Amino acid sequence: MIIEALAQAAGILCFVTANVIPDHNTRFYFVGIDKARFRRPVVPGDQLLLTARLERSLRGIWRFSTVALVADAEVAHADMMVAPEAGA
User: Would you place residue 15 in the very low, low, confident or very high pLDDT band (cuts 50, 70, 90)?
Assistant: First the structure.
């Protein structure tokens, strides 16, 4: 669930980075994940803070560095790759 949340954070950053207002016709596709690591368990009641940062854009693939924190301690991280729909 944490990796899914990080992917969603990267997806939101796609819209912001591309200066696109999301609607039912706008799509960005999740195309890959690298270097996913879990550092410690997250338990009910923990507040999860998600961050995503655009690292680079190469040949239509955007690479984001994502991190999940609980109480300023990293609990998970991953590099996410996202691509806009062709023609977008």
Answer: confident
Q: Which of 50, 79, 52, 47 is nearest to 63 (CA)?
A: 79
Strand positions, DSSP E, the chain? 28-38, 48-58, 61-70, 73-84
Instruction: Return the structure tokens found at 23.
Output: 């609607």
* CA 75 to the chain's CA centroid: 15
pLDDT in tens, 50-72: 999 999 988 878 999 999 999 99
Distances (CA, A) of 64 to 43, 51, 68: 26, 10, 13
List Cα–Cα distances, 78 to 27, 56, 64, 86, 88, in angstroms. Answer: 21, 15, 8, 25, 26
Largest CA distance in the chain: 43
- Find tokens 């990080």 and name the residue: 6
